[in-house]
Amino acid sequence: MSIAARFRIAFPGFVLDADLTLPGRGVTALFGPSGSGKTTLLRAIAGLERVAGGHLVVNGDTWQDDERRIFLPTHQRPLGYVFQEASLFPHLSVRGNLDYGRKRIAAANRRIDGDRVIDLLGIGALLDRLPARLSGGERQRVAIARALLTSPKLLLMDEPLAALDYARKQEILPYLERLHDELEIPLLYVSHAHDEVARLADHLVMLEQGRVLANGPLGATLARLDLPLYLGEDAGVVLDAVVVERDAGWHLVRAEFPGGSVWVRDNGLPVGHRVRLRILARDVSVARHKLEGSSILNTLPARVVDVADDAHPALALVRLDIGASPLIARLTRRSAAALELRPGMEVWGQIKAVALIG
Amino acid sequence: MLNAPDLAAIWLTLRLAGLTTALLLVIGTPIAWWLARTRHWAKGPIGAVVTLPLVLPPAVLGFYLLVLMGPDGPVGHLTQALGLGLLPFTFPGLVVASVIYSMPFVVQPLRQAFEAIGARPLEAAATLRASPLDVFFTIALPLALPGFASAAILGFAHTVGEFGVVLMIGGNIPGKTQVLSMAIYNHVEALEYGAAHWLAGGMLLFSFLALLALYTRGGKRPT
């Protein structure tokens, strides 16, 4: 179960050169700044962009292999595509839009139940409306449902939330999480928003100016010290955790991850719920001894794995391990030198802020 | 009032314009679609050729068509070889000339309507398993429908009003190739201003109504 994609496209002033093997399940984020080539890569995978010499195999099916003169046109690829703008057909009702793709696949291939998708995306009340009478968030939900109803073997989303305001984004993200949890379709998700990636992705591909900087599992990739240079203030790790304890008096819950646990604000999630924790490097500091009398709630024993230079000459990045879970701390180089941080050293990681996502 | 040749001219003109418009919608649609979508180098030259009748003096166009379709022209050779005889001074000849003469008035609105759709809905349809032909009929045609109405109105009205090309190709044979504008010309030559007024006034009203239909319909178009 994997997706192998090899594309080399040269535009004036820009070359996309990608040779990727991606997991054939779960959510893979294609992440990078504008102009990094992530949309072009997605369009090449969809066949919307014809790339000479390209090679693409999706879970065993060859979609493009120019050496063997194989190129499936877009309409013959079992994929679903969600564009940045919903791109609903304006002359068809919501129902007409949903049926457009569904009725074009053989009945035997309709593995996804229409009612379930409509329910999953909460669009049951909109079916008879025309797209012009929908809000931006509703339109995008219909577009996602429309793509799902073709029972795709691969789902491609090109910044589906980028054209929406904050409130609309928060409206759609839970639906995307439910897709992730409930459907077995691999999803390639193009984004330049760190929070979306942290929340949705299992696997991360980082692109910069047409080059692949990194390609690996989300947690391990974000824990690398060579990538924060590109992430700037958003450098940090994402940990998978479970809510294990509630302190109703202080409105806190304890989230446990392999090797430790942290107290975070209680968002009403029940004990036993799986969550993701996002801990930014700038919110982590390091101490040689456990500090008493500090306002910092979460102080955990950690081991220094590596120390590296950050983009700014004043700053250093320290990779810590808390049991089996990684953490990155951004310190001044002076502090790192004063503490004489070296790989293998036992220290205390002080976590000032944890974002609980999902 | 109108005499029998006048009525024959009106009937002939309506038949000519109707047939020409129908043919142009059939021929012009693929041309307009191609011009709207292609990145081929020939897009410019072919677009210019199709638009040429818009700027060319009708007499020039009519002259060349007469030469081409005449007994010594290549089209003339072809029609004679096919046993169709010669096209000039016949109704089919008028239809051929009108199709060419009114081509830009049909192709331009269609092309603009297709271009206004943009690539995105067509790409979205392709990702929903629609083949290119399927996309054309289920997405492009419905979305370009207002353009088809404009194209039909303009093509019809423009064919009704033609004079120069018809004079060159059709001559002025009552009941056979004499169209409305020609009948008006004959009345004026004969100083029959009363009859000319009836026909000219009718044309004025018809043209106004055609444009009124175009603009009021355009105003209702959803944005």
Please describe what this structure looks like.
The complex is a heterodimer of chains A (358) and B (223). Chain A is of the alpha+beta class and 358 residues long. Chain A has two domains: 2-222, P-loop containing nucleotide triphosphate hydrolases (Rossmann fold); 236-357, OB fold (Dihydrolipoamide Acetyltransferase, E2P), CATH 2.40.50. Helices cover 22% and strands 38% of the residues of chain A. Chain A has helices spanning 38-46, 94-102, 114-120, 136-148, 166-182, 194-200, 218-222, 228-231, 333-338; strands at residues 2-11, 14-23, 27-31, 55-58, 61-65, 70-71, 79-82, 154-158, 187-191, 203-208, 211-217, 236-247, 252-257, 260-265, 274-280, 284-287, 298-309, 315-322, 325-332, 346-351, 355-357. In chain A, the strands form four sheets. In chain A, strands 7-8-9-3-10-11 form a six-stranded mixed beta sheet, with helices on both faces. A five-stranded antiparallel beta sheet of chain A has the order 2-1-4-5-6, covered by helices on one side. Chain A starts with a strand and ends with a strand. Chain B is 78% helix and 0% strand. The termini of chain B are far apart. The A-B interface holds A 46, 48, 73-76, 79-81, 83, 85, 87-91, 100-101, 104-105, 132, 146-147, 150 and B 120-121, 123-132, 134-135, 138-139, 142-143, 222.
